[in-house]
């Protein structure tokens, strides 16, 4: 193996302070990694070379023999001084899209990387990186309604509690009685099990108390006065985050698909953007010059109906009959409301 690969493997053999390892122990570890024809002097030179570079946090304790090698406890694994333009672009993108779902301690640790990334992109001699940064964007479609925003302090404490697996106390906004104003109620020993952001709403997945097994969902915007407790989270024995997420936040198709056919205006956004309802979708010309006929296998869900309603008179549903009758009925209701 090359000297470069040998030195990379050598770095993996060095523990973080206060643990230490000797040159002889490093030699044995390298031999176990498949490096042959090594001797103690070669390993010693490699260690001294990497220490002189000063970018890997390598330190040696010479107070006793054999000398002990370790990595400085405060050394960051990804050294900022070695950040290249592509890595800077990755950090800049991460800062834009992932801050909501990262704990504050992680964001704090990454702040220096974010700042360095912006500096590198700004000063990069090649225009390719800055050109890319200024040529792509992730835009969430604005919500048609004004949603309550979570309290930043409450969100930060909830993320910290989840990260450290700690229980919390908090005030929750509850609608306990029909046709009554909501009330703020204090709950103790909340078990925070996860955090999910769907569209514009950040939701806490949790149980209440230490004995209840039911898993709840609470918008973080309905929480305040969060207090982290020095008590470990106790999750229900059957709880699985991914299973709960898939069954409560993602659209589950339990019914058999039906054949959807409809007329759609050629200048509608759906047609012009080449969107599809399903993989087997077909588009045909019709006798109506301004319309095409679209056929596809779909699941007749409330979300599909809401999507189709958004097209207004730009579509006419043909089949299934139940869906056509649904649109006929709401059309009558609209006529009564707006006549």
Overall description:
By secondary structure, the chain is of the alpha+beta class. It folds into 4 domains: 69 residues, Winged helix-like DNA-binding domain superfamily/Winged helix DNA-binding domain (Arc Repressor Mutant, subunit A), CATH 1.10.10; 54 residues, no CATH class; 97 residues, no CATH class; 81 residues, Alpha-Beta Plaits, CATH 3.30.70. The chain contains 11 helices and 11 strands. A 5-stranded antiparallel sheet has the order 6-5-4-3-7, with helices on one face. A 4-stranded antiparallel sheet has the order 9-10-8-11. A hairpin with a 7-residue loop joins strand 5 and strand 6. Helix 4 crosses helix 5. It starts with a helix and ends with a helix. The mean pLDDT is 86.
How are the secondary structure elements laid out?
Elements: H1 3-12, H2 23-32, H3 40-53, E1 58-61, E2 68-71, H4 85-97, H5 104-123, H6 127-133, H7 152-164, E3 166-174, E4 183-198, E5 201-208, E6 216-219, E7 223-232, H8 241-248, E8 258-265, H9 269-272, E9 282-285, E10 291-298, H10 302-309, E11 315-319, H11 321-338
Antiparallel strand pairs: 1-2, 3-4, 3-7, 4-5, 5-6, 8-10, 8-11, 9-10
Helix pairs in contact: 2-3, 4-5
């Amino acid at each position: 193996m090359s000297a470069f690969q040998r030195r990379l493997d050598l770095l993996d053999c060095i523990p973080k302070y206060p643990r230490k390892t000797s040159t002889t122990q490093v030699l044995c570890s390298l031999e176990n990694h498949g490096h042959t024809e090594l001797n103690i002097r070669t390993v010693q030179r490699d260690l001294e070379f990497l220490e002189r570079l000063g970018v890997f946090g390598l330190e040696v304790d010479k107070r006793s023999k054999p000398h002990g090698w370790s990595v400085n406890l405060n050394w960051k694994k990804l050294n900022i001084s070695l950040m290249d333009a592509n890595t800077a672009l990755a950090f800049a993108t991460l800062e834009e899209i992932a801050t909501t779902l990262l704990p504050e301690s992680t964001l704090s640790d990454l702040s220096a990387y974010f700042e360095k990334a912006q500096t590198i992109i700004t000063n990069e001699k090649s225009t390719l990186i800055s050109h890319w940064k200024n040529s792509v964007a992730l835009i969430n479609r604005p919500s048609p309604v004004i949603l309550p925003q979570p309290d930043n302090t409450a969100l930060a404490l909830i993320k910290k509690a989840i990260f450290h697996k700690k229980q919390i106390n908090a005030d929750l906004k509850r609608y306990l009685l029909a046709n009554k104003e909501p009330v703020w109620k204090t709950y103790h020993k909340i078990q925070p099990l996860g955090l999910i952001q769907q569209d514009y709403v950040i939701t806490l997945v949790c149980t209440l108390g230490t004995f209840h097994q039911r898993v709840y969902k609470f918008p973080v915007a309905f929480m305040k006065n969060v207090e982290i407790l020095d008590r470990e989270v106790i999750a229900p024995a059957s709880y699985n985050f991914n299973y709960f997420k898939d069954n409560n936040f993602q659209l589950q198709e339990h019914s058999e698909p039906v054949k959807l056919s409809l007329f759609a205006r050629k200048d509608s956004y759906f047609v012009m953007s080449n969107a599809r309802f399903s993989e087997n979708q077909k588009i045909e010309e019709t006798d109506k010059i301004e319309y095409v006929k679209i056929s596809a296998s779909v699941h007749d869900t409330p979300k599909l109906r809401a999507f189709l309603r958004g097209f207004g008179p730009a579509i006419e549903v043909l089949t299934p009959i139940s869906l056509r009758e649904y649109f006929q009925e709401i059309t009558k209701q609209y006529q009564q409301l707006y006549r």
